[in-house]
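2 proteins. here.
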Amino acid sequence: MSPLSTLGGKKLSLQYCLKLSCNYNYLAYATVFNSKFHCFERKPTQLPPLAIRVSGNLQAVGFKKSDVITFSIPTTPPWLLTRPVVNFTLHCSDKSNTPPEIFKHRFYELCHEFKNYYRIFTDGSKESNRVAAAVVHRDNTKCVRLPDTASIFRAELYALLFAIDVVRRSKEKNFVIFSDSMSSVQSIYGFNLDSDLVQKLL
């Protein structure tokens, strides 16, 4: 076997296993990531299963199961989902050309419009290799450290998930959630079901 074909085989094996890792419902998942075959170490002449052959390569590329986000098919068809009510008032103006006082004034107007609503504020942040999501409501603050590989987009979505959790646990009747992430809000409003977190929010 030539070095090129060996390299190509490793690449294909890694691609297959990385794709497999995000869906534990596949039958092959357990054979690769929960393999119980260890007797092949004592039988060097026999061809070991894929789980053993690829384990060293997965470690070499820094693969960790804990960093993998599992994919799931939504149980509710998209046409039965309820589109959330989203107010884009604060995103109507260009940030670079609009004085901060204008945004502050519009924010106060929104607060007045929803004066009888329980206010929840969310934020996601990424600094260097540290990622976190936070939710603030009245005198309560919850901040959670996320995996270092998480994007700022996912951090913002996680923060919105925390806000939904506050809603579920609260005895209040009406809620308004403030988010500064246009991409997150648009993904939810636009039913971007490619994102597992958007699926959970809907």
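next one coming up
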Amino acid sequence: MTLKKKWTEHLDRNDMTYWSHWWFAVGHGYHCIRAGIYLCIHGFLPCFYRHAGSKLVHSLEKDFVEREHETSNEDGGVRL
């Protein structure tokens, strides 16, 4: 499969334009990096950012589950 075909297939399956996909992916990447920094600080100083990891996981789960429901096809299946 060519790169172009993989690229367009992924965007089509997720019903996203290139830029909407970019914002979704980069936005989540930014949150992961920020939470990673907080977790590193928490590792050295346990009294700070005690819930950074769990907040990140819950936030990502919420966003991805909502996105999954948005892209479900009519027969109830999920586009991956």
